[in-house]
C-alpha cells in the first residue's frame, strides 16, 4: 500500500474543528483505496503565536516542507488583529506560502444545483456557475520590494508597496492556468489593469507569449474593474480566470460569494515541485469557533483536492467528492447553507454523514 | 442672473450623443432657475488623438481649468486599444484628473424602486441599496513612482508600479468621506488591505486620526477581499465607503453592477478648489455608438451632480433629478434597463421625455 506524509495545520478559530472532521474523511477514503497516511500536526497563525511567539515557527515550515502535502484549517482572529505586522497570523500564512513556493492558487467557485438558492444572485444567473480562479500567490504587491514606511521629498510621511512581476513568475502561472483551462472548457480569461499599470502591461505581454504554446485554449483579456462587474452580471461567461496576487484575492472572494456558499469552497496552492498547500477559502470565523457549527465541507473538499492535485490519488479524491454530493442530496446542511426543508446538522454530524457515503 | 462656464468633453463612442442630450437638459433647468451657461466644447481621449495626436491637448486642459465645471461623456474604443501608453485615451483621462487635481471621486450606487428588477441580485437583496463610494483619484498605484519596465537582480525583465500614499493625500480624502457620510446616514466604512500592505496600514492609521474630527460618524474598517464579498452578500449594510484609487476602481464598478443599471449612474470628481469633473460611470460603448441606443440618464444625472457639487445650484440639480424619476415613473426605458411592460425609447427620445418633466 502507498504511504504519504500529511502535515495538518489546524490553525485558529474553527480551524481545529474542520481539520479533525476532514482527517477522518481522508482516513476512510484512503483505507478503502489502499493508501496509508502518516500525519504530523503543527501550529501556525495565532495558535503558533500563543505557543511560540511567532506565527510560523521554523519547525512548522520544516515539517510542511518534508511532507507530501499540507492541509490547513484557517488562521486569524480578533485577538491578534492589532499585532504588529511580523506578529500577525496572516504573516505566518504568507511566509508559509513563500516557504513552500506555492505560486499557483486554484480556487474553484461552483454553484451546486443543491445549493443554488444560497446565492444572493437570481436563480437564472447563479445556476450552472462553474469557474476556476488561478491566482498568482507568491509575487506581486504582496511580496514586492521596496515596501514600508518613510518620508517623501516634501518630508511627509508615506506608506508604500511595490507591485512587480518578472518574466518567470508570469510564465509559470500562465502555464498552470492554460493547463487548467485545457482540462476544463478550454477558455482562459486573463485579468489585469493594462490600461493603467506597467506591471499589468508586462503581465499581458507574457500571457500572450505563453498563449502561443496553447493554441487550443481560447484566451481573452479583461480589465479588473470590468471583471468585478462581469462576475455579478453574468458569472457563467467565465471558465478559467488567471490574475495576479491582489486582483486574485479580491476576485476569488467575490466569485466565491456569488456561489452563496463559501463554507463549501476548497483551494489548492501548488509549486513547481514539493508539497502543495490545501485549505478552505473561508476564514477562521472566531464568532462560531468551538460551537460545532462550522461547515466542514470546504475542508473536506480541500482534502479531496489534496488527494487529486497533491498526491495524484484521483480515485480517493473522487470518492470524497461523491460522498459530499451524496450527503447534500440526502438533505444535510450546516447553518450557513441551511434552508427550509433541509436537515440542520453541526460540524461533527456533517462529518459523520459524509463518512457514511465515502 | 448667474453665469457659469461649462467645459463639455464629449469624448468617444456614445459620449457625443449623451453629452448633447444632457446639455439640453442642463439648459432648460438653468433657464427656469435663472442661471446662464456659457459652453466650450473641446476634444479628449480618442477624439483628441485623432484630431491632434495626443489624448489630452494642452488647450483642452487649459479650457477645463478656466471653466467652472467640466462635463465628460466617455473615452476609449477598440481603435486605440493597442496604442502605447502615452497615446491611450485612458492616459488622457488620467492626465485630466491629475491636471484638475480632482482627488475625490464620488460614485453613488443606488437601486431605484423603478429599476430593482434590473439587478442580477434577488429583489430582497437589491431593494433599497443606496451607497456612496468615495474613491481617492489622483494618488496610489495609478500615479506612484517609480513605475515602468526594467530588469531585476537576476537579469530578468520586470514590469512594476508603486502603491504609495502620503499623509496629506489620505487626510484630504478622509475629510471628504467623513463629510459625505455625515450628510448621508453617518456610517463610513474604510476599505484597505492592512493585513498585508504597508500602504494600507498607513491608510488605516490616518483614517483613524482624521476620525477624531468626526465623532458623530460611525467608522468601520474592512479588508478589500471581504468588501468585494459583502457587496454581493448584503450591499445594504453599506452607507459610505472610502478607499484608495485601485480598490475604488474595482469596488465602485462592482457596486454599480449590483444596481443592475450602470447606464443610470453618475459620478463627481472634486478637488480642493477649481472646477470639478462630472461623468457617467459607464464606458464609451463603441458597439452601440451612433445608433441612438445609449442611455443618457447617467450623463443627465452627472449634470445634476455638476449643478449641486460643482456650482452649488441645488435647485436646478433637484429639478433634474426629479425629472429623471418622473420619466422613469412614466415608464420610459432605454434598451439597457428595458423590461416587459415599459416603453422602449432611444437616447434622443429619452432626453426629450426628461425635458418635458424638468
Ligand atoms: C489572510 C490573507 C493574508 C489572505 C490573502 O490576502 O491572501 C486571504 O485573504 C486569502 O485570500 O487567502
Ligand atoms: C478608463 C480607466 C483609466 C478608468 C480608471 O481606471 O480610473 C475607469 O476605469 C474609471 O473607473 O473611471
UniProtKB/TrEMBL annotation, chains A, B:
<dbReference type="Pfam" id="PF00180">
    <property type="entry name" value="Iso_dh"/>
</dbReference>
<keyword id="KW-0560">Oxidoreductase</keyword>
<protein>
    <recommendedName>
        <fullName>3-isopropylmalate dehydrogenase</fullName>
        <ecNumber>1.1.1.85</ecNumber>
    </recommendedName>
</protein>
<comment type="subunit">
    <text>Homodimer.</text>
</comment>
<dbReference type="InterPro" id="IPR024084">
    <property type="entry name" value="IsoPropMal-DH-like_dom"/>
</dbReference>
<keyword id="KW-0460">Magnesium</keyword>
<comment type="similarity">
    <text>Belongs to the isocitrate and isopropylmalate dehydrogenases family.</text>
</comment>
<keyword id="KW-0100">Branched-chain amino acid biosynthesis</keyword>
<comment type="function">
    <text>Catalyzes the oxidation of 3-carboxy-2-hydroxy-4-methylpentanoate (3-isopropylmalate) to 3-carboxy-4-methyl-2-oxopentanoate. The product decarboxylates to 4-methyl-2 oxopentanoate.</text>
</comment>
<feature type="domain" description="Isopropylmalate dehydrogenase-like">
    <location>
        <begin position="5"/>
        <end position="354"/>
    </location>
</feature>
<keyword id="KW-0479">Metal-binding</keyword>
<comment type="pathway">
    <text>Amino-acid biosynthesis; L-leucine biosynthesis; L-leucine from 3-methyl-2-oxobutanoate: step 3/4.</text>
</comment>
<keyword id="KW-0432">Leucine biosynthesis</keyword>
<keyword id="KW-0520">NAD</keyword>
<dbReference type="InterPro" id="IPR019818">
    <property type="entry name" value="IsoCit/isopropylmalate_DH_CS"/>
</dbReference>
<keyword id="KW-0028">Amino-acid biosynthesis</keyword>
<dbReference type="InterPro" id="IPR004429">
    <property type="entry name" value="Isopropylmalate_DH"/>
</dbReference>
